[in-house]
Amino acid sequence: MAAPSRTSWADVADAEPAPPAPVPAAAPATSNGPARADRSSYVPPHLRNRSSNAPPVSSAPPPRAAPGLLGRPTGGVGGRFGGGGAPPRRWDREPNPFGDEEEVPAEPVPFDEHQNTGINFEAYEDIPVETSGREVPPAVGTFAEIDLGAALNDNIRRCKYVRPTPVQRHAIPISLAGRDLMACAQTGSGKTAAFCFPIISGIMRGPPMQRSQRGGSRTACPLALILSPTRELSMQIHEEARKFSYQTGVRVVVAYGGAPITQQLRDLERGVDILVATPGRLVDLLERARVSLQSIRYLALDEADRMLDMGFEPQVRRIVEQMDMPPRGVRQTLLFSATFPGEIQAATTPYLTRMHARP
Ligand SMILES: Nc1ncnc2c1ncn2[C@@H]1O[C@H](COP(=O)(O)OP(=O)(O)OP(=O)(O)O)[C@@H](O)[C@H]1O
């Protein structure tokens, strides 16, 4: 699994499938993660060849890291929508996040036919990835190797994603195996899909939700929580997650501060499976008892380093440790960050199952 150590590292928890609970207390990981670098100087690989005077990929600044992983299994895999079969009728009329593009390409679109972003993910191929942990599920080379379900696969084709990016190649199989994960990957490397795909797939295959959780209740009980530091990032994740979950029956709602809460409350009342939220607004919703975390099966923290840099640690701690969220070992935790210096590891590893120091 491991690759050159020059640009990558990983911290890991127990990779051995363990009973959901109880689990031993986590030992903090070591603090020798990569040093924080100036973000503004970083050029994601997919943008490096955009202008004629852009540096060649080989001379561009290397990414700082790659996924690191950990483990614990989650509960059973049932078959809520038959692994991607027909979703319930109530979702048939959901707005199409792909606009007018109704058709699902029969085959993955070759890279040079991409119409959306022109992103060159071929540039990521040379990125070394290091994983650690015990019995780490192997990385995949294609989306076809992963059983994400038919509806999600259709959306991947609609998104014109041909191949998984490195962080997706490693993180998706690990997450699908029910393991906790700490992944260090740079902005623009495809992290959103790396945590959304397993979450959406897991919800689709999970046991049917109780009626009260499908809307009509004053207190929304999402199954997955994606915490992100800013309104902009939350909106971006929401937009992507809606595309990935189109016609899967999985409903995504976003809640962020700096905007009226009324519409967000209405959206929550209609039912929510995946809640994308900023910490401050979520605390507000929890205090109003408009959201309960009691049903959370997946917790994803995106840009964990930025979240803590921005002073959200007390809110994050409160959300994860002091409200009604199921403990680690019961929920699955996915941490994503561009850097994982010591203080971030110290703050976040208690959220993970069976951490141990990196070798
Ligand atoms: N496998 C893929 N193939 C092609 N495009 C992809 C793939 N995965 C993600 N993308 C696209 O790459 C872009 C960057 O991905 P994404 O926003 O998920 O990165 P990120 O690491 O989450 O960045 P940020 O930290 O800014 O949120 C998006 O336009 C996304 O649609």
UniProtKB/TrEMBL annotation:
Extent of motif Q motif: 141-169
Stored PROSITE patterns: HELICASE_ATP_BIND_1, Q_MOTIF
Keywords: ATP-binding, Helicase, Hydrolase, Nucleotide-binding, RNA-binding
Pfam families xref list: DEAD
Signal peptide feature range: none
Biased composition (Gly residues): 73-86
SUPFAM superfamilies with a match to the protein in the record: P-loop containing nucleoside triphosphate hydrolases
GO molecular function, one term: RNA binding
Keyword field contains Hydrolase: yes
Region (Disordered): 1-114
Catalytic activity of the protein: ATP + H2O = ADP + phosphate + H(+)
Domain called DEAD-box RNA helicase Q: residue spans: 141-169
Domain of life assignment: Eukaryota
Domain Helicase ATP-binding: from-to ranges: 172-358
Family recorded in the similarity comment: Belongs to the DEAD box helicase family. DDX3/DED1 subfamily.
Protein name: RNA helicase
Organism from which the protein derives: Triticum turgidum subsp. durum (Durum wheat)
